[in-house]
């Protein structure tokens, strides 16, 4: 089969890496890809949000199956446009992608079908939103309705901070169109867990659990980012919790989407908070997490491609995915300054040496130079990914590879999985 992966991040490198290994894959293309992806796929210069360009590309290259990585083209209707052109694709339709594309749609669905999530109200008027915040008190959470690239959420410790976030979104347009409507919701507490399933409109297949590290710096300090590292499995995800999340959150959602005439196909990624009252939904994403995907792909023993195709075909009940017992860790290396302003084009050396340690280096924002070098082109640049018999061994292996990379303009967190490791140690000692 000829396969096209859409996107250019670490998630798409991991997907290409896994798909290229499939015996079903004859030719693999990626649009637009990056310097790391170019080692496993032919990169084509069409942007991930250029829906029309991608439809043309799929027909030019006789693509049999498209795998869409990021949310934006899904929300823009790429899968619908490809279907109209007779090309099968992995991912939800635009109406099903609204689970991520519109938080008020997602919250409304939860309310109608009794799916546990934070209490909320939606607003387009700043004065009404501020009156609500004053009545509720802090801490309280203000969110943009639409896609805001991970920047649309303010967890406000005080009423004034919440009011400022409301003004910024509704009066100053700081989230752009995405913030023309906002959600004000109850601030929940508890550990966070990323829960991934494949769905085919009806059948749901849970994937391995993973945890992300959203803050930029060690000890969960600094600004929120797209994710600075991940690990899998998550010690938080027990079998009992998996069953509960499936029964109370995931299965009701997939059934609700079908009932609403927008059956969900693709990866459904629930951001969960494990509150004192049980697991509750923070948000839905309609694609793999980045960097969680990198950890999942190196742990997957089965061929991913038949599972992705079965999701599109409504045939997931025939799929059984096998996972390695080993743990996986991804350490993200980012450009200094990320998630704020950063320099582009800084040279990265030592990638070969890092790969020789046994780690897999997924590229997220890189380009090749004419003389064969690699430069950083994005905020998140590399996802250094390693397996180990234990989470501790995986962590040591990942940081050995990180230490082999010579990139003075980059930084990473040094505490990926540290909290999970010390919790595990405390349990052993108990
Ligand atoms: P989201 O993009 O909706 O997942 O929000 C980003 C981050 O903000 C989450 O990972 C949480 O850490 C935090 N957050 C979002 N909603 C809430 C909430 N209702 N209560 C507490 N924290 C939240
Ligand atoms: N790692 C978080 C995300 O992909 O949204």
Description of the structure:
With 430 residues, this protein is α+β, with helices and mostly antiparallel strands. It contains 14 helices and 24 strands. Helices cover 34% and strands 27% of the residues. A hairpin with a 5-residue loop joins strand 21 and strand 22. It starts with a strand and ends with a helix. It binds adenosine monophosphate and glycine. Glycine binds next to loops. The site of glycine (GLY) has 7 residues, from loops.
Output the keywords.
Rossmann fold, 5-stranded parallel sheet, 6-stranded antiparallel sheet, 24 strands, 27% strand, 4 domains, binds glycine, alpha+beta, Dna Ligase, domain 1, D-amino Acid Aminotransferase, Chain A, domain 1, 430 residues, binds adenosine monophosphate
Brief summary:
With 430 residues, the chain is of the alpha+beta class.
Q: Layout of SSEs?
A:
Elements: E1 2-7, H1 10-20, E2 27-32, E3 42-43, H2 51-60, E4 65-68, H3 71-75, H4 78-84, E5 88-90, H5 94-101, H6 103-113, E6 120-123, H7 126-136, E7 140-144, E8 153-156, H8 159-171, E9 182-186, E10 192-200, E11 204-206, E12 211-212, E13 215-217, E14 221-224, E15 229-232, H9 239-259, E16 265-275, E17 278-285, H10 292-299, H11 304-313, E18 327-335, E19 347-348, H12 351-356, E20 360-363, E21 366-368, E22 374-376, E23 380-388, H13 391-404, E24 410-411, H14 418-429
Parallel strand pairs: 1-2, 1-4, 2-3, 4-5
Antiparallel strand pairs: 6-9, 7-8, 7-9, 10-11, 10-16, 12-15, 13-14, 15-18, 16-17, 18-23, 18-24, 19-22, 20-23, 21-22
């Amino acid at each position: 089969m000829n396969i096209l992966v859409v996107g250019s991040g670490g998630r798409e490198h991991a997907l290409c890496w896994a798909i290229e290994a499939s015996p079903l894959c004859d030719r693999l293309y990626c649009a637009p890809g990056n310097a790391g992806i170019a080692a496993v796929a032919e990169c084509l210069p069409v942007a991930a949000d250029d829906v029309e360009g991608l439809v043309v590309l799929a027909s030019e290259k006789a693509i049999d199956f498209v795998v869409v990585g990021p949310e934006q083209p899904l929300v823009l209707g790429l899968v619908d446009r490809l279907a109209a052109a007779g090309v099968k694709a992995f991912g939800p339709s635009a109406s099903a992608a609204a689970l991520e594309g519109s938080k008020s749609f997602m919250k409304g669905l939860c309310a109608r079908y009794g799916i546990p999530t934070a209490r909320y109200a939606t607003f387009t008027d700043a004065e009404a939103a501020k009156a609500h915040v004053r009545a509720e008190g802090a801490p309280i959470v203000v969110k943009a309705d639409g896609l805001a690239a991970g920047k649309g959420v303010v967890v406000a410790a005080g009423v004034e901070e919440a009011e400022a976030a409301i003004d910024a979104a509704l009066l100053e347009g700081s989230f752009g169109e995405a913030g023309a409507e906002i959600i004000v919701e109850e601030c929940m507490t508890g550990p966070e867990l990323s829960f991934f399933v494949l769905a085919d409109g009806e059948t749901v297949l849970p994937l391995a659990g993973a945890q992300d590290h959203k803050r930029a710096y060690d000890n969960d300090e600094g600004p929120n980012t797209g994710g600075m590292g991940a690990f899998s499995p998550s010690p938080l995800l027990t079998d009992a919790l998996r069953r509960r999340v499936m029964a109370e959150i995931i299965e009701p959602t997939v059934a609700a989407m079908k009932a609403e005439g927008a059956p969900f196909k693709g990866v459904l990624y629930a951001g969960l908070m494990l509150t004192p009252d049980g697991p509750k939904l923070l948000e839905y994403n309609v694609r793999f997490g980045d960097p969680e995907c990198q950890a999942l792909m190196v742990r997957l023993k089965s061929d991913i491609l038949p599972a992705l195709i079965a999701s599109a075909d409504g045939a997931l009940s025939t799929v059984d995915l096998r996972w390695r017992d080993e743990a996986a860790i991804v350490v993200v290396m980012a450009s200094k300054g990320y998630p704020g302003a950063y320099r582009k084009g800084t040279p990265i050396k030592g990638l070969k040496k890092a790969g020789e340690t046994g780690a897999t280096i997924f590229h997220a924002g890189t380009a090749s130079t004419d003389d064969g070098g690699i430069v950083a082109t994005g905020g998140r640049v590399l996802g250094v990914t390693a397996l180990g018999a234990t989470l501790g061994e995986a962590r040591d292996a990942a940081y050995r590879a990180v230490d082999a990379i010579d990139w003075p303009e980059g930084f990473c967190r040094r505490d990926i999985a540290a909290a999970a490791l010390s919790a595990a140690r405390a349990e052993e000692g108990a």
